[in-house]
Specification:
The structure is a single chain. This protein is of the alpha+beta class. Helices cover 40% and strands 16% of the residues. The protein has helices at 31-52, 54-67, 98-101, 126-133, 141-147, 160-163, 183-186, 194-207, 210-225, and strands at residues 6-13, 16-25, 73-79, 85-91, 151-153, 179-181. It is globular, with a radius of gyration of 18 Å.
């Protein structure tokens, strides 16, 4: 049972995890009630968002098809709650065969292994750079939310090879449903280590509640509107 009081919001500051506090009072509820309430909110808003964004989905789908050869939606196996794999959806923002070409540019990786990130990844298409900047490529994950694979807020789902690098303590991030947006995405520097990223996720796991979820969603809106991008 969650204790009375305010819900501590973990923040990220200069590459170090720290704990701040929200100004929103913590709802008094059990973990089961929180999980049920969050699921209802997820399904309701994912359905509404898909209906409202349908014109955007159609325009982006046509744009992806015209910009480069290949499928409109990129499908990839990711690790979900309790380590269960699921198919993760995004608008395709890279050339076909990008996964196979990764080995050729691995030496240009700007992130700590096992993560791979490049600010100017040559595999990204022209349209892909724009839809990534404004997180438009993430919209198909609303389908993942409706299916129950993901939530709006939670640790970002890792690839199987990344999840295999977890220590037993780090595996606790798999105790919750992964999310479209996460604490690390909206709380500070993006160029941090794999272990610092997971540390931020564990802070979320320890302190998650509806007010923390709301705070992360509001910050995400700001990040998207300013084009700061996501992870």
């Amino acid at each position: 049972m969650k204790k009375a009081g305010r819900c501590a919001l973990p923040l990220f500051d200069n590459g170090k995890a720290r704990v701040g506090r929200t100004d929103v009072p913590l709802m008094q509820s059990s973990d089961a009630a929180y999980t049920w309430t969050k699921r209802v909110i997820d399904v309701t808003f994912a359905f509404i968002a898909l209906v409202i964004l349908m014109p955007v989905l159609l325009v982006v789908a046509v744009g992806v098809k015209m910009d480069s050869t290949g499928p409109v939606v990129f499908r990839q196996k990711r690790v979900g709650r309790y380590g269960n794999p699921f198919i993760f959806y995004k608008f395709r923002s890279m050339e076909v065969g990008a996964e196979d070409a990764r080995a050729e540019i691995l030496h240009l990786n700007e992130a700590e292994a096992p993560l791979f990130k490049m600010r100017n990844d040559p595999r990204v298409t022209r349209l892909g750079r724009w839809i990534r900047k404004y997180a438009v490529d993430e919209i198909p994950q609303l389908v993942n939310v409706l299916k129950g694979d993901m939530s709006f807020v939670g640790p970002r789902p890792h690839l199987p090879e990344e999840a295999r690098q977890y220590t037993p303590e780090q595996s606790r991030r798999l105790s919750v449903i992964p999310g479209i947006t996460c604490l690390w995405q909206v709380s500070g520097p993006k160029r941090i280590s794999f272990h610092e990223w997971i540390a931020a996720d564990l802070e979320y796991v320890n302190r998650r509640c509806l007010s923390v979820d709301l705070a992360i969603v509001l910050r995400t809106i700001k990040v998207v509107l300013t084009g700061e991008g996501t992870c």
